[in-house]
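ESCALATION

Customer reports they have been waiting on this structure for their group meeting. Please prioritize. Original submission:
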Amino acid sequence: MALVVEDGTGKSNANSFVDDAYFRAWAKVRGRADLIPQSGTEREPFLVLAADYIANEKRFTWRGVRKTAEQSMPWPRTGVVDADGLSWSSAAVPWRVMMAQCELAWLNMTGVDLQPALSRGGQIISETVGPISTTYANAAPAETEFPAAVGVLEPLLWRSKASKMIPYLTTEVTVSGFEGEFMPEDDGA
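Update from on-call: job pushed to the front of the queue and completed.
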């Protein structure tokens, strides 16, 4: 397997956001360089699996739109304004995505399965026919989230706190009320 690194052009065959040198530098700064496989060919599958995790569009709802219809990865994107109001270039992959991929690759190297198969739950575990009684298995287990990786991505996602903010008001408004019932204060007019 060979890494094909997305360079900001929207490659149709990309399978990583970072190259091996970037990952090695990331690991070295964090004191993890001696703990990763020594061979680049041994590291590549972990980088690809980490990129697959980030590319899972059921998990992440990215701001902006893909740069091209043919690109294999969710980045690069156009029209991305993050939760802080900062615009991101459509000609590059954000450092946030690259850092998250490195963290996820590291976790995978330590034995963490990034995308395990999950039982959906709800299977019938007992059944009585008369008078009817059915017992179901517990609901599906919660999917593991990796805060060190997902936290750095949060400003690029629609689910971030800023995306839930009330739009700016152009005039001053006083709000009062109780249990969801709000009405402007009477100004005596």
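Sent to customer with the following note: The chain has one domain: 20-184.
Escalation resolved.
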